[in-house]
């Protein structure tokens, strides 16, 4: 029996996480899907199966420390290996620096940073054994912090630093680690943001969506599938020499070098 290749994708119920899970179903035998929304996660699982891969679902909150161990131990018990880990889960509140509460800061760190950190540590020995790959998702705000989304920028910058630290250890252990910093990708979450933001600026949602790319200095919003293609490349054999990189894909929004 051929050995199955196994990829774990967090945040797989929607947006970039879902798109990445579907893209990886073309390259891996098994996709382990992690998120909190069972209904949406089951839909992703069904679509993964239709693409020819096996799907395993974990409906868990990565804010909870025990979730990482549950996922890794369960995956290893069933398949005996992990080849790729893609840490995509996590939304950080876009609230002004002077209005953010300690609880909101802590919540943003708990899922996107600490959830990814714990899962990567739990998976590390298995990734060493498979000479596998890790990707952590950050965001372009890390390179251009603004007071109105200070937590997003700060936590994304921390993720880039964390990925660099894992990559340094990975050079010794044979584990490839990179981070990806998407720009303005049109996901359901971004649509919800505009539905709240537009009325506060005396705009319709359609008007807000139309003017944003021009204000950001880009031609259009990105698509989740475009980020998913980049993710799939980073965990493919073709990218094996790329490690410790923080890769921006933002349509040219960040102009600094």
Explain this structure.
- It is a single chain.
- 49% of the residues lie in helices and 14% in strands.
- By secondary structure, it is of the alpha/beta class.
- It folds into two domains: 6-184 and 223-249, NAD(P)-binding Rossmann-like Domain (Rossmann fold, 3-Layer(aba) Sandwich), CATH 3.40.50.720; 186-221, no CATH class.
- It is globular, with a radius of gyration of 18 Å.
Instruction: Say what the CATH topology of the largest domain is.
Output: Rossmann fold
Describe the biggest sheet?
Answer: 7 strands, parallel
- The dominant shape is globular
- Enumerate the spans where pLDDT stays under 50 for 5 or more consecutive residues: none
Q: How much of the polypeptide forms β-strand, as a percent range? A: 5-15%
SSE pattern, N- to C-terminal: EHEHEHEHEHEHHHE
Count of structural domains: 2
End-to-end C-alpha gap: 49 Å
Going by helix content, strand content and strand pairing, the class is alpha/beta
Architecture of the largest domain, CATH level 2?
3-Layer(aba) Sandwich
Strand order of the largest sheet: 3-2-1-4-5-6-7
Q: CATH superfamily membership of the largest domain, which one?
A: NAD(P)-binding Rossmann-like Domain
Proportion of residues in helical segments: 40-55%
> How many beta-strand runs?
7
Name the average pLDDT. Answer: 95
Q: What is the number of helices?
A: 8
CATH class of the largest domain reads Alpha Beta
Radius of gyration: 18 Å
């Amino acid at each position: 029996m051929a050995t199955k290749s196994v990829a774990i994708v967090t945040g797989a119920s929607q947006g970039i996480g879902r798109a990445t899970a579907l893209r990886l179903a073309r390259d891996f035998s098994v996709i382990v899907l992690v998120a909190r929304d069972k209904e949406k996660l089951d839909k992703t699982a069904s679509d993964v199966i239709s693409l020819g891969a096996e799907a395993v679902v974990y409906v868990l909150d990565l804010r909870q420390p025990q979730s990482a161990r549950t996922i890794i131990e369960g995956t290893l018990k069933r398949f005996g290996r992990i080849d790729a880990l893609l840490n995509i889960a996590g939304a950080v509140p876009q609230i002004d620096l002077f209005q953010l509460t300690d609880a909101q800061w802590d919540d943003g760190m708990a899922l996107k940073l600490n959830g990814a950190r714990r899962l990567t540590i739990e998976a590390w020995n298995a990734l060493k054994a498979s000479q596998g790959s890790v990707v952590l998702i950050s965001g372009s705000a890390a390179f251009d912090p603004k007071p109105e989304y200070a937590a997003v920028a700060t936590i994304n910058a921390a993720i880039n630093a964390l990925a660099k630290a894992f990559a340094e250890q990975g050079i010794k252990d044979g584990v490839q680690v990179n981070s990806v910093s998407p720009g303005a990708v049109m996901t359901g979450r971004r649509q919800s943001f505009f539905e709240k933001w537009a009325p506060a600026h005396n705009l319709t949602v359609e008007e807000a969506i139309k003017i944003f790319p021009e204000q950001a200095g880009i031609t259009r919003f990105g698509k989740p599938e475009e980020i998913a293609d980049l993710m799939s490349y980073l965990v493919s054999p073709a990218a094996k020499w790329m490690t410790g990189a923080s890769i921006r894909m933002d349509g040219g929004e960040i102009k600094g070098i």
